[in-house]
Amino acid sequence: MTATTTPPQAPASLKARMQTFITDEVIPVEIDVIRNNLRVTDDMRLDLQEKARAAGVFGPLSSREHGGLDLSLTELIDVMEVAGTSLLGPISVNCSAPDDGNIHLLEHAGTPEQKERYLAPLASGTVRSSIAMTEPAPGAGSDPSMLMTSALQTPTGWIINGDKHFTTGADGAAFFICIADTAHGATMFIVDADNPGVEVVERMTTLDRCVPGGHCIVRFADCEVGDDARLGEVGSAMVYAQARLAPSRVIFCVNWLGVAIRAHHLACRHVTTRTSFGSPIAESGFAQAMIADTEIDIAASQGLIRRAAEVIDAQGPAASDARHAASLAKAFVAEAVWRILDRAVQLHGGLGVCEDHLVARFLVEARAFRIYEGPTEVLRWSIARRALRRLPN
User: Fold this and answer.
1) Is residue 110 part of a domain?
2) Are residues 71 and 135 in the same domain?
């Protein structure tokens, strides 16, 4: 990129519409969910998505063919930072995990028939999806080579057997993308939710509660699918997973950064109105230090997210530089978001642990961000390995 090149940005009018939509339509629902400890249902999701369509902000990730805005990743991060200021914002515009990554995956690896049957309804928000990768010990977690779910080829298709857990969105999903080991390596399969060989065993009780369909234990038991259910070539699951992962990590980062920025604004407003020891809390050195540190974390996070988006748009999500940039962003932003939210709670004092003031729920919901889509420790390990491999001889 030359010094005179300006990175593409979403139009200011689109960001303004997104801000109005989030403020007027989404945040009131979010506050009701938090204060009354409600489950985020599909009826709630569909209602918000219909309002997003009416507001002209639905589907930043989806193609125009499917009613979306067809934005590049660099354009998308501008509007998703706004959408991410509410826990329900990404869901409302159909740009939240796991559907965002599965849209990328189906566009990249799906056959024309698979795109018509699965991508079209997913991208249009008609249905939700799930990806079944993570397994109970000793199966695959951060190390995908430990995959234990198997797929045995038959004359007519495949038989899948294995248990998965932390299967996000599984309760109520229309279909699963299941990763299973075959005689020729890990392979992806699309499994309809009404297949008699797949069962959502239970919904796990987790800290984060604002995910439609929750995180579930899913069992594949003699699950028969045709060869037309195979997504991509046999043995190529990890290649496709990498192509899915880089943009998904960037979207995950920008969504959670939006929540952190909102918490920061709430904290700043609080300390300017609350007096302690004869003066506003905002005038104290400790408060100003925390506010300054948060401003630094936000600016650094925005820079890393934008850089990752630019590399992915320029080189494609499977490129080594794209995966490295996405790993850098995820490793830093996950920890920065946690620091920002922790400071917001602290600056609220006792009210910070009260869910009526929202920042407590933001903190609890965000805790899993440091683990999902790659734990920080694993990302640091992979970042270091790439750096060492690039040393000149």
Assistant:
1) no
2) no
The DSSP secondary-structure symbol of 268 reads H
Reduce the DSSP state of residue 93 to 3 states and report it: coil
Domain co-membership, 252 together with 318:
yes
Report the alpha-carbon distance of residue 84 to residue 27 in Å, rounded. 11
CATH number at residue 61: 1.10.540.10
What CATH number does residue 156 fall under? 2.40.110.10
Q: How many CB atoms lie within 10 A of CB 20?
A: 13
Instruction: Tell whether 224 and 351 lie within a shared domain.
Output: no
E strand residue ranges, the chain: 129-132, 150-153, 157-168, 175-182, 185-192, 198-203, 215-226, 230-231, 275-276, 279-280
- The residue from 96, 119, 145 where one domain ends is 96
Find the domain containing 85 and state its range: 14-96
- b/e map of 234-258 (b: 16 or more CB within 10 Å)? bebbbbbbbbbbbbbbbbbbbbbbb
CATH number at residue 277: 1.20.140.10
Residue spans of beta strands (DSSP E) within 350-391: none
Look at residue 116 and tell me if it is in a domain.
no
User: Residue written as tokens 């028939």?
Assistant: 113
**Tens digit of each residue's pLDDT, the chain (393 residues):** 333 444 455 678 999 999 999 999 999 999 999 999 999 999 999 999 999 999 999 999 999 999 999 999 999 999 999 999 999 999 999 999 999 999 999 999 999 999 999 999 999 999 999 999 999 999 999 898 999 999 999 999 999 999 999 999 999 999 999 999 999 999 999 999 999 999 999 999 999 999 999 999 999 999 999 999 999 999 999 999 888 899 999 999 999 999 999 999 999 999 999 988 889 999 999 999 999 999 999 999 999 999 999 999 999 998 999 999 999 999 999 999 999 999 999 999 999 999 889 999 999 999 999 999 999 999 999 999 999 999 987
Q: Which of 50, 68, 164, 53 is nearest to 107 (CA)?
A: 68
What is the domain count for the chain?
3
